[in-house]
User: Which sequence fits this backbone?
């Protein structure tokens, strides 16, 4: 994917954010870098994760289908890449951030059944 920018300032901001991701080098930073996610998209993803947590706190059910649809609204260039959505939610859980969200979204899948046992 090649990003298009409206101005040199937008492109510079994107490059600076990517440099910060490389410097931090956490699991989530590596995913954001790999998927060429902008800082603004990252903020929206964190807001979505907060929203998912709030729904859980209010006793509401959340689904990976709804989560993925909302992720595609944030990052339309990755529409249909459900692996990206899953990986990002998983990295947040592994980092101890919104850790209750991933099992609620993906815990019913056979490959993640072990999450329900622990």
Assistant:
């Amino acid at each position: 994917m090649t990003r298009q920018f409206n101005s040199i300032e937008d492109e510079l901001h994107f490059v600076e954010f990517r440099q910060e991701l490389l410097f931090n080098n956490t699991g989530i930073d590596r995913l954001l870098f790999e998927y060429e996610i902008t800082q603004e998209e990252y903020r929206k993803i964190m807001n979505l994760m907060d929203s998912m947590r709030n729904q859980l706190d209010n006793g509401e059910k959340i689904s990976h289908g709804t989560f993925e649809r909302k992720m595609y609204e944030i990052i339309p260039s990755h529409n249909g890449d459900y692996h990206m959505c899953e990986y990002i939610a998983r990295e947040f859980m592994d980092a101890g951030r919104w850790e209750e969200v991933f099992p609620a979204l993906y815990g019913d899948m056979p490959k993640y059944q072990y999450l329900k046992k622990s």
